[in-house]
Give the backbone structure.
Amino acid sequence: MNTHGHIEMLNDSGERVKALAPMIVSASRATDIPAFFAPWFFDRLDKGYCVWKNPYNGKDSYVSFANTRFVVFWSKNPAPLIPFLPRLMERGIGFYIQYTLNDYDEEALEPNVPILSDRIDTFKRIVDTYGLGSMVWRFDPLILTEEIGINELLGKIQHIAYELNGYTEKLVLSFADIAGYKKVGVNLRKAGINYREWTESEMLGFAAELHGLNLPMQLATCAERIDLSQYGIEHNHCIDPDLISRLAPEDPALQMWLFGATKDKGQRQACGCILSKDIGQYNTCTHGCLYCYATNTPASAKLK
Protein backbone atom coordinates (compact mmCIF):
# COMPACT_ATOMS: atom_id res chain seq x y z
CA MET A 1 0.00 0.00 0.00
CA ASN A 2 1.48 3.35 -1.04
CA THR A 3 1.06 6.04 1.61
CA HIS A 4 2.80 9.32 2.30
CA GLY A 5 6.32 9.04 3.62
CA HIS A 6 7.81 11.22 6.35
CA ILE A 7 11.27 12.71 6.55
CA GLU A 8 13.23 14.93 8.91
CA MET A 9 14.29 18.31 7.52
CA LEU A 10 15.52 21.74 8.53
CA ASN A 11 13.04 24.60 8.35
CA ASP A 12 13.93 28.21 7.52
CA SER A 13 14.89 28.80 11.17
CA GLY A 14 17.32 25.89 11.17
CA GLU A 15 15.11 23.73 13.37
CA ARG A 16 14.96 20.00 12.66
CA VAL A 17 11.32 19.07 12.09
CA LYS A 18 9.31 16.13 10.83
CA ALA A 19 7.59 16.61 7.48
CA LEU A 20 5.19 14.75 5.23
CA ALA A 21 6.91 13.97 1.91
CA PRO A 22 4.22 13.20 -0.70
CA MET A 23 4.88 11.81 -4.17
CA ILE A 24 1.91 13.76 -5.60
CA VAL A 25 0.97 17.30 -4.55
CA SER A 26 -2.51 18.76 -5.08
CA ALA A 27 -2.37 22.54 -5.57
CA SER A 28 -5.14 22.99 -4.63
CA ARG A 29 -8.75 22.07 -3.97
CA ALA A 30 -8.89 24.72 -1.24
CA THR A 31 -7.74 27.78 -3.21
CA ASP A 32 -6.55 28.83 -6.67
CA ILE A 33 -2.78 28.55 -6.37
CA PRO A 34 -2.10 29.03 -10.12
CA ALA A 35 -4.13 32.27 -10.24
CA PHE A 36 -2.97 33.90 -7.01
CA PHE A 37 -0.03 32.07 -5.49
CA ALA A 38 2.20 30.82 -8.31
CA PRO A 39 5.23 32.89 -7.11
CA TRP A 40 4.71 31.60 -3.56
CA PHE A 41 4.46 27.99 -4.73
CA PHE A 42 7.68 28.10 -6.71
CA ASP A 43 9.49 29.97 -3.94
CA ARG A 44 8.51 27.20 -1.53
CA LEU A 45 9.46 24.57 -4.10
CA ASP A 46 12.92 26.13 -4.25
CA LYS A 47 13.12 26.10 -0.46
CA GLY A 48 12.03 22.46 -0.40
CA TYR A 49 8.92 22.63 1.75
CA CYS A 50 5.81 24.54 2.74
CA VAL A 51 3.69 24.83 5.86
CA TRP A 52 0.09 23.66 5.71
CA LYS A 53 -2.59 24.67 8.22
CA ASN A 54 -5.18 22.02 9.07
CA PRO A 55 -8.59 23.69 8.50
CA TYR A 56 -10.24 21.62 11.25
CA ASN A 57 -7.87 22.05 14.18
CA GLY A 58 -5.78 25.03 13.01
CA LYS A 59 -2.49 23.20 13.53
CA ASP A 60 0.45 23.74 11.20
CA SER A 61 2.40 20.88 9.67
CA TYR A 62 5.32 20.66 7.28
CA VAL A 63 5.08 19.33 3.75
CA SER A 64 8.40 18.49 2.10
CA PHE A 65 8.84 18.41 -1.68
CA ALA A 66 11.82 16.07 -1.42
CA ASN A 67 9.89 13.14 -2.92
CA THR A 68 7.45 15.09 -5.09
CA ARG A 69 7.33 13.79 -8.66
CA PHE A 70 4.01 15.22 -9.88
CA VAL A 71 1.71 18.18 -9.20
CA VAL A 72 -1.99 18.38 -10.02
CA PHE A 73 -3.02 22.02 -10.20
CA TRP A 74 -6.64 23.22 -9.85
CA SER A 75 -7.57 26.59 -11.28
CA LYS A 76 -10.08 28.92 -12.91
CA ASN A 77 -7.28 31.11 -14.26
CA PRO A 78 -3.94 29.35 -14.75
CA ALA A 79 -2.53 32.13 -16.96
CA PRO A 80 -0.25 33.45 -14.14
CA LEU A 81 1.20 29.95 -13.81
CA ILE A 82 2.44 29.77 -17.42
CA PRO A 83 5.81 31.55 -16.91
CA PHE A 84 6.65 29.20 -14.03
CA LEU A 85 5.89 25.86 -15.66
CA PRO A 86 9.34 25.46 -17.28
CA ARG A 87 10.79 25.40 -13.76
CA LEU A 88 8.79 22.24 -13.06
CA MET A 89 10.13 20.67 -16.23
CA GLU A 90 13.70 21.55 -15.18
CA ARG A 91 13.14 19.65 -11.93
CA GLY A 92 11.68 16.64 -13.72
CA ILE A 93 8.32 17.15 -11.99
CA GLY A 94 5.26 16.43 -14.11
CA PHE A 95 1.93 18.20 -13.96
CA TYR A 96 -1.53 18.64 -15.34
CA ILE A 97 -4.20 21.22 -14.60
CA GLN A 98 -7.79 20.60 -13.59
CA TYR A 99 -9.17 23.72 -15.26
CA THR A 100 -12.64 24.84 -14.22
CA LEU A 101 -13.89 26.58 -17.33
CA ASN A 102 -17.51 27.57 -16.79
CA ASP A 103 -19.64 30.02 -18.72
CA TYR A 104 -21.33 32.13 -16.07
CA ASP A 105 -20.14 35.51 -17.41
CA GLU A 106 -23.62 36.82 -18.17
CA GLU A 107 -24.99 35.76 -14.79
CA ALA A 108 -21.94 37.19 -12.91
CA LEU A 109 -21.63 34.09 -10.71
CA GLU A 110 -17.83 34.28 -11.04
CA PRO A 111 -17.26 38.06 -10.93
CA ASN A 112 -13.45 38.15 -10.77
CA VAL A 113 -12.40 35.53 -13.31
CA PRO A 114 -11.26 36.66 -16.79
CA ILE A 115 -13.83 36.68 -19.56
CA LEU A 116 -14.59 33.33 -21.16
CA SER A 117 -12.74 33.99 -24.43
CA ASP A 118 -9.53 34.79 -22.53
CA ARG A 119 -9.86 31.66 -20.40
CA ILE A 120 -10.35 29.51 -23.49
CA ASP A 121 -7.25 31.10 -25.00
CA THR A 122 -5.26 30.20 -21.86
CA PHE A 123 -6.44 26.60 -22.15
CA LYS A 124 -5.22 26.39 -25.75
CA ARG A 125 -1.89 28.09 -25.02
CA ILE A 126 -0.98 25.54 -22.37
CA VAL A 127 -2.04 22.56 -24.48
CA ASP A 128 -0.12 23.92 -27.47
CA THR A 129 3.01 24.02 -25.31
CA TYR A 130 2.68 20.94 -23.10
CA GLY A 131 0.44 18.64 -25.10
CA LEU A 132 -2.93 16.94 -24.87
CA GLY A 133 -3.61 15.75 -21.34
CA SER A 134 -1.90 18.70 -19.68
CA MET A 135 -5.34 20.30 -19.27
CA VAL A 136 -8.57 18.66 -18.08
CA TRP A 137 -11.75 20.66 -18.67
CA ARG A 138 -14.18 20.95 -15.77
CA PHE A 139 -17.64 22.52 -15.89
CA ASP A 140 -18.10 22.66 -12.17
CA PRO A 141 -20.61 23.17 -10.70
CA LEU A 142 -23.71 22.84 -12.83
CA ILE A 143 -26.04 25.24 -11.07
CA LEU A 144 -29.77 25.76 -11.61
CA THR A 145 -31.25 29.23 -11.07
CA GLU A 146 -34.18 31.26 -12.37
CA GLU A 147 -32.00 32.26 -15.35
CA ILE A 148 -30.11 28.99 -15.85
CA GLY A 149 -31.98 25.81 -16.68
CA ILE A 150 -30.91 22.51 -18.19
CA ASN A 151 -31.15 23.79 -21.76
CA GLU A 152 -29.03 26.84 -20.94
CA LEU A 153 -26.37 24.65 -19.32
CA LEU A 154 -26.29 22.34 -22.30
CA GLY A 155 -25.86 25.33 -24.61
CA LYS A 156 -23.00 26.70 -22.54
CA ILE A 157 -21.24 23.33 -22.53
CA GLN A 158 -21.74 22.83 -26.25
CA HIS A 159 -20.24 26.25 -26.99
CA ILE A 160 -17.10 25.64 -24.92
CA ALA A 161 -16.77 22.09 -26.25
CA TYR A 162 -16.76 23.47 -29.79
CA GLU A 163 -14.00 25.91 -28.87
CA LEU A 164 -11.92 23.20 -27.15
CA ASN A 165 -12.34 20.54 -29.82
CA GLY A 166 -8.95 18.87 -30.19
CA TYR A 167 -7.62 20.47 -27.01
CA THR A 168 -9.13 18.27 -24.31
CA GLU A 169 -9.78 14.58 -23.90
CA LYS A 170 -12.28 14.87 -21.08
CA LEU A 171 -15.07 16.97 -19.61
CA VAL A 172 -15.61 16.60 -15.86
CA LEU A 173 -18.96 17.70 -14.42
CA SER A 174 -20.50 18.11 -11.01
CA PHE A 175 -24.01 19.02 -9.96
CA ALA A 176 -24.24 21.89 -7.49
CA ASP A 177 -25.01 20.48 -4.03
CA ILE A 178 -25.90 23.68 -2.26
CA ALA A 179 -27.86 21.99 0.51
CA GLY A 180 -24.64 20.34 1.66
CA TYR A 181 -22.97 23.72 2.24
CA LYS A 182 -25.23 26.05 4.21
CA LYS A 183 -22.96 29.08 3.83
CA VAL A 184 -23.16 28.72 0.04
CA GLY A 185 -26.94 28.95 0.15
CA VAL A 186 -26.73 32.01 2.39
CA ASN A 187 -24.25 33.72 0.06
CA LEU A 188 -26.36 33.01 -3.02
CA ARG A 189 -29.53 34.32 -1.40
CA LYS A 190 -27.75 37.47 -0.22
CA ALA A 191 -26.66 38.03 -3.82
CA GLY A 192 -30.24 37.66 -5.03
CA ILE A 193 -29.58 34.33 -6.79
CA ASN A 194 -32.65 32.12 -6.60
CA TYR A 195 -31.13 28.69 -7.00
CA ARG A 196 -32.69 25.27 -6.70
CA GLU A 197 -31.30 21.82 -6.04
CA TRP A 198 -31.03 19.14 -8.69
CA THR A 199 -33.43 16.22 -8.50
CA GLU A 200 -32.31 12.76 -9.52
CA SER A 201 -34.68 12.76 -12.47
CA GLU A 202 -33.22 16.09 -13.65
CA MET A 203 -29.68 14.69 -13.39
CA LEU A 204 -30.71 11.70 -15.49
CA GLY A 205 -32.47 13.91 -18.01
CA PHE A 206 -29.48 16.22 -18.25
CA ALA A 207 -27.15 13.24 -18.75
CA ALA A 208 -29.33 11.88 -21.55
CA GLU A 209 -29.36 15.24 -23.33
CA LEU A 210 -25.62 15.68 -22.87
CA HIS A 211 -24.98 12.21 -24.26
CA GLY A 212 -27.08 13.15 -27.26
CA LEU A 213 -24.75 16.05 -28.10
CA ASN A 214 -22.05 13.52 -29.08
CA LEU A 215 -19.25 15.70 -27.78
CA PRO A 216 -15.79 14.60 -28.99
CA MET A 217 -14.48 13.90 -25.50
CA GLN A 218 -14.89 11.53 -22.57
CA LEU A 219 -17.54 12.54 -20.01
CA ALA A 220 -17.17 12.05 -16.27
CA THR A 221 -18.63 13.27 -12.98
CA CYS A 222 -16.70 14.41 -9.92
CA ALA A 223 -17.64 12.82 -6.60
CA GLU A 224 -21.24 12.16 -7.67
CA ARG A 225 -22.97 9.10 -6.27
CA ILE A 226 -25.49 8.86 -9.10
CA ASP A 227 -24.71 6.27 -11.78
CA LEU A 228 -24.82 7.83 -15.24
CA SER A 229 -22.89 5.10 -17.03
CA GLN A 230 -25.86 4.29 -19.26
CA TYR A 231 -25.20 7.68 -20.86
CA GLY A 232 -21.48 7.11 -21.25
CA ILE A 233 -20.62 9.23 -18.20
CA GLU A 234 -18.18 7.59 -15.81
CA HIS A 235 -17.05 8.39 -12.27
CA ASN A 236 -13.90 10.47 -12.47
CA HIS A 237 -10.49 10.21 -10.81
CA CYS A 238 -9.39 13.85 -10.67
CA ILE A 239 -6.04 12.79 -9.20
CA ASP A 240 -5.81 10.18 -11.93
CA PRO A 241 -3.16 7.42 -11.85
CA ASP A 242 -3.67 6.55 -15.51
CA LEU A 243 -3.20 10.11 -16.73
CA ILE A 244 -0.24 10.70 -14.42
CA SER A 245 1.38 7.48 -15.63
CA ARG A 246 0.87 8.48 -19.26
CA LEU A 247 2.32 11.97 -18.75
CA ALA A 248 5.39 10.73 -16.84
CA PRO A 249 6.41 7.52 -18.63
CA GLU A 250 10.12 7.91 -17.93
CA ASP A 251 9.86 8.37 -14.16
CA PRO A 252 10.41 4.89 -12.68
CA ALA A 253 9.99 5.99 -9.06
CA LEU A 254 6.62 7.57 -9.82
CA GLN A 255 5.52 4.64 -11.97
CA MET A 256 6.33 2.20 -9.17
CA TRP A 257 4.46 4.34 -6.66
CA LEU A 258 1.42 4.56 -8.92
CA PHE A 259 1.32 0.78 -9.27
CA GLY A 260 0.26 0.47 -5.64
CA ALA A 261 -1.49 3.82 -5.23
CA THR A 262 -4.60 3.79 -3.04
CA LYS A 263 -7.77 5.86 -2.83
CA ASP A 264 -7.50 9.12 -0.92
CA LYS A 265 -9.61 8.37 2.14
CA GLY A 266 -9.53 12.02 3.18
CA GLN A 267 -11.87 13.00 0.35
CA ARG A 268 -15.63 12.56 -0.04
CA GLN A 269 -16.93 9.01 -0.15
CA ALA A 270 -17.75 9.15 -3.86
CA CYS A 271 -14.40 10.72 -4.77
CA GLY A 272 -12.21 8.51 -6.96
CA CYS A 273 -8.90 10.33 -6.45
CA ILE A 274 -5.76 8.49 -5.47
CA LEU A 275 -3.68 9.69 -2.55
CA SER A 276 -2.09 13.12 -2.79
CA LYS A 277 -1.33 15.95 -0.40
CA ASP A 278 -3.29 19.17 -0.81
CA ILE A 279 -1.35 22.25 0.27
CA GLY A 280 -3.99 24.96 -0.10
CA GLN A 281 -5.69 27.08 2.53
CA TYR A 282 -9.38 27.91 2.64
CA ASN A 283 -10.69 31.48 2.56
CA THR A 284 -7.81 32.75 0.41
CA CYS A 285 -9.31 32.72 -3.10
CA THR A 286 -10.56 36.09 -4.35
CA HIS A 287 -12.32 35.03 -7.55
CA GLY A 288 -15.51 35.90 -5.66
CA CYS A 289 -17.57 32.99 -7.02
CA LEU A 290 -20.99 33.20 -5.40
CA TYR A 291 -21.35 29.41 -5.08
CA CYS A 292 -17.90 28.81 -3.53
CA TYR A 293 -17.68 26.40 -0.57
CA ALA A 294 -13.98 27.19 0.09
CA THR A 295 -14.56 30.73 1.35
CA ASN A 296 -16.88 31.90 4.10
CA THR A 297 -18.11 34.80 1.97
CA PRO A 298 -16.66 36.35 -1.20
CA ALA A 299 -15.87 39.51 0.77
CA SER A 300 -14.03 37.64 3.54
CA ALA A 301 -11.51 35.90 1.29
CA LYS A 302 -8.00 37.29 1.55
CA LEU A 303 -4.74 36.71 -0.29
CA LYS A 304 -2.40 35.33 2.34
